[in-house]
């Protein structure tokens, strides 16, 4: 919320856009979120840059080794290969984990144009300048399909990508089930969907928390989604993933079940 307030004040007093808070709410909200995400992702840079290179195939982490959600990302992204779709990469925090020679090309679908400059800079800094292609759109079919065609990637019944990466992004897509269904269709047979996502607290199970679930509801009522880039705290992402289509295998782990931001991480392999 502080980023949103500061952005509105800057618009009025520094840029002289007196009516912007009333007439350009959407633009200012996007600008504020861009600033928030730059700071949010940079706070997690150390854990990602200190991780093993993607080609080293690190062993899965244990509960005792996991200190935060960023620790879940390296062993998952290490499994990326072939043609990769990076869904909502933001500022490209996970870029150091996508340098494996097994990856042929990466297409990052990022609708927030305010993040593109930082995303491109990180791609260049990690030697991925020619391999990483920024798509200025969301992964909704109506936006993504035309952009893919412009980049010479025609969608077919056999899919397009060998790997699709979803890291902290499915919480904010407008229609999660439809989005996941479309991602499934974009995967080639045998392709992998790599996920690290925060989800609704499993409060009905022994691993969940009634208090944490209540706090998720409270934060939502106080405007969490508006101030944090349409992020939703109450999505059953695992259920949406499992019902998206036929999977050869589903390997999903749950983490931080007693908190307001429990996570799932894992790999889903599309049936060949």
TrEMBL record:
Record bears the keyword Methyltransferase: yes
Pfam families, per database record: Methyltransf_23
SUPFAM superfamilies the record matches: S-adenosyl-L-methionine-dependent methyltransferases (SSF53335)
Keyword match Methyltransferase: yes
GO function terms (MF aspect): methyltransferase activity
Coiled-coil residue spans: none
Keywords: Methyltransferase, Transferase
Annotated InterPro entries: SAM-dependent_MTases_sf, Thiol_S-MT
Region (Disordered): 48-69
GO annotation (BP), single: methylation
Domain of life per record: Eukaryota
Name the UniProt record assigns to this protein: S-adenosyl-L-methionine-dependent methyltransferase
Organism field: Aspergillus steynii IBT 23096
């Amino acid at each position: 919320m502080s980023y949103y307030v500061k952005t509105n004040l800057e618009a009025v007093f520094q840029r002289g856009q007196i009516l912007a808070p009333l007439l350009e709410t959407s633009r200012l909200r996007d600008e504020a979120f861009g600033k928030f995400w730059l700071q949010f992702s940079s706070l997690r840079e150390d854990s990602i840059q200190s991780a093993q290179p993607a080609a080293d195939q690190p062993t899965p982490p244990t509960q005792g080794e996991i200190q935060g959600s960023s620790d879940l990302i390296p062993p998952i992204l290490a499994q990326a290969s072939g043609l990769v779709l990076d869904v909502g990469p933001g500022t490209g925090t996970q870029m150091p984990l996508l340098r494996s020679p097994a990856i042929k090309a990466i297409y990052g679908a990022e609708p927030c144009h305010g993040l593109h400059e930082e995303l491109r800079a990180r791609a260049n800094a990690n030697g991925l300048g020619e391999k990483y292609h920024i798509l200025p759109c969301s992964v909704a079919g109506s936006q993504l399909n035309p952009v893919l065609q412009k980049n010479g990637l025609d969608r077919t019944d056999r899919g397009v990508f060998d790997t699709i990466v979803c890291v902290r992004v499915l919480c904010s897509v407008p229609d999660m089930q439809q989005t996941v269904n479309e991602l499934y269709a974009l995967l080639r047979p045998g392709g992998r969907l790599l996920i690290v996502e925060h989800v609704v607290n499993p409060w009905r199970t022994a691993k969940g928390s009634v208090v944490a679930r209540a706090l998720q509801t409270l934060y939502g009522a106080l405007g969490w989604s508006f101030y944090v880039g349409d992020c939703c705290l109450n999505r059953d992402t695992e259920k949406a993933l499992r019902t998206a289509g036929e999977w050869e295998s589903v390997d999903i782990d749950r983490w931080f079940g007693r908190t307001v931001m429990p996570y799932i991480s894992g790999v889903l392999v599309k049936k060949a």
